[in-house]
Amino acid sequence: MSVVIGILFGIALEQAGFGSSRRLSGVFYFKDMAVIKVMFTAMITAIIGIVLSFRFGLVSEQAVYLNPTLYTAQVMGGIIFGIGFVIGGWCPGTAAVGAASGKGDAFVFLGGTLVGSILFNETYGLVKGLHAAEKQHISFVYDALGMPREWFVLIFVFAGILVFWCMELIEKKTVQKSEYLNSDFLKRFSFILLIAGFFVFLVSQDPSSALKNDTGLSRDISDVLPSSEQKLLSDIDKALDHMEPEELARRITSGQKNIILVDVRSEPEFSHFHIKTARRIPLEDLTEQLAPYKNLGMIVLYSNGMTHPAQARDALFRMGFQNAYILTDGLDGFINRCLKPVSLRSEPVPESIAAEINQWRRFFLATLPPSSMNNSASAITEGRTTHPGIIDTQWLSSRLDDPGIRIIDLRSQPEYNSGHIPGSFALNIESMRGNIQGVPSCLLPSPLLAGHLSLMGIRPETTVVLVYGEKVQDATLVGMALERVGHADYSLLSGGFPQWKTSGLSTDTRLPETAASVYPDTNQDRFSVNYKTVLSHVENNTALILDVRPEAYYSGEKSDEARPGHIPGAVNRPFDMDTQKAGDTVEFKPVQELKTAYEKIIPSKHALVIVHCRTGHQASQTFFVLKHLLGYDRILWYDAGWTEWAARVELPVKTGKTP
Fold it and tell me: Are residues 29 and 136 in the same domain?
């Protein structure tokens, strides 16, 4: 069918005279305006046809692919295309028609098109920035003008008719000849277009104005809406587009991995408090950032109430998302129905439900300090005193008997033996690493990591608290292991064991007892990259490479690896610049201080960043800072790091203190 349509299209172009470059280029001399007239005829026909197809359900709007609007790239492309049109007198389609007619210049033009395409492909890395510089979105002219689509169609039809008459006048004036000016054909053609424009305008009006039939009785809205809109309204009417807070809590705490929980509120509100496992995505970025999850899993949208999530859900539905849901009653409803203490509820709560609520509170409030977890549900949103992913000694000391919490001590065996937090398990971080494809000290694959977690009795619903000694990166490295198997419920003890000891809290020398679990092997690693990926980003300048080794190793003044130096283009910020030490206690610097420092290095929260050190250990700390403390959402981790890069002689290396 496509071949037949192509042949017919070619015949139509030839009959219109577009097999001649002279006629095509005549538009630039105002002597032959056929190109403009044909273009407007095609645009008006397409606009009327597609809008009517949408209106009567012949074509689904979700089934139509639309190129993203990238103003800079498209303006540049238009300029290049226009220059080529002026010089050659052809565009690709008409050149094919001309070549079929034996026109020599058309063959030359097509040859140039082929060469240009090859050059563009080979030099794409140089111009890719034009494409990547803008946020991909789809923009409609009528939206930009702030008018309904049917009004735009009507105005465009009027404009098209005016263009047809003006083109005839121009030809009359420049070449003293006009084929259709004041002709019956042009008058009839204009009249038909007007009728078509008004018809589109009338049938595309808001269906709510058509809900009355001629008897004055209400009609079913399905009589006037396309099938896709019928489904949307039907889902809303039956509340099929909602997810109840209790259902969400059960799905998340049971370890269900296909829930994409999206908070559409502002950054300050999100930082103040959000549902655990949620990610913040501004309304304007939803389509782009959720594209990988289109019709995969369950996208659950929430805000404080339900207005903004409902708008977001409708927008996603119209972009073809069939898996977007609204959290009933929003964040306020989730807090009151799932996190409000049983003792404060006015109605009696069955014992089984009370146990479930307590489980939810342990899970969703695990990273909140005690000051945010008192006996008032509203107090949950009153603020935090520690960072997301970090808990303090007071919080932990009040929950030592909680069977849902597993404390992991990452200090050396002698240090652990001499005294540890009661109930904590010892873990040597090197047991989580091994030789992977010849590279030493890489994080183990998820099946082996799941085995380690099983031996300590950890389950997907367990809250894991990581306790370090002098090195925060010990805890963050184990955090990477947890994230690799999809275990998001973990926190670092602020200040580690030294802070626990300084606080005068009790310690123990007894070994804990627990039954082994069977932790599922669910590889959720979407953040680790290999040297090939890093090299590609270096060559195309599509990611910020962040080297967190000490400056002397970055510059090449010191080296413990096969070659000194750093990856070309990599920026250096040593990992230890993110922490501060008071006595024996090491902890992260204040978030605002970290935020200010990284804003000078990373252009935006959505920039693609690859962090690395020698073997991933130090880089895991920077990964934690950027992702969990500062909210950067595109952070990748090159685990093999400089150990692998330096050993591969084919990879480029640079020395010195500059990228």
Answer: yes
DSSP secondary structure, 271-312, as one string: HH---TT-EE--GGGHHHHHGGGTTSSEEEEE-SSSHHHHHH
- Same domain? 28 vs 124: yes
Whether 545 and 434 map to the same domain: the answer is no
CATH number at residue 327: 3.40.250.10
Q: Are residues 97 and 169 in the same domain?
A: yes
Q: How many CB atoms lie within 10 A of CB 185?
A: 9
- CA angle at 525 for the pair 524 and 531, rounded to the nearest 5°: 160
3-state DSSP assignment of residue 602: coil
Q: Residue written as tokens 């962040």? A: 546
Q: Which active-site residues does the annotation give? A: 613
β-pairing, 571-572 with 579-582? unpaired
Same domain, 428 and 473: yes
Strands 490-493 and 544-547: unpaired
Tens digits of residue pLDDT in 181-207: 788 888 888 899 889 888 888 887 644
List the alpha helices (DSSP H) in 398-494: 413-418, 446-455, 472-484
Helical pair 227-237 and 307-318, crossing angle rounded to 10 deg: 150
CA dist., res. 341 & res. 357, Å (int): 8
pTM: 0.48
Contact call for residues 348 and 389 (beta carbons, < 8 A): no
The 10s digit of each residue's pLDDT in 255-306 is 777 889 999 988 877 877 789 889 999 888 888 888 888 888 889 999 987 7
End residue of a domain, out of 465, 483, 502: 502
Do 496 and 541 fall within a single domain? no
Provide the number of structural domains found in the chain.
4
Q: Give, in degrees to the nearest 5, the angle at Cα 237 between 304 and 265.
A: 15
Quote the domain boundaries for residue 50: 2-202
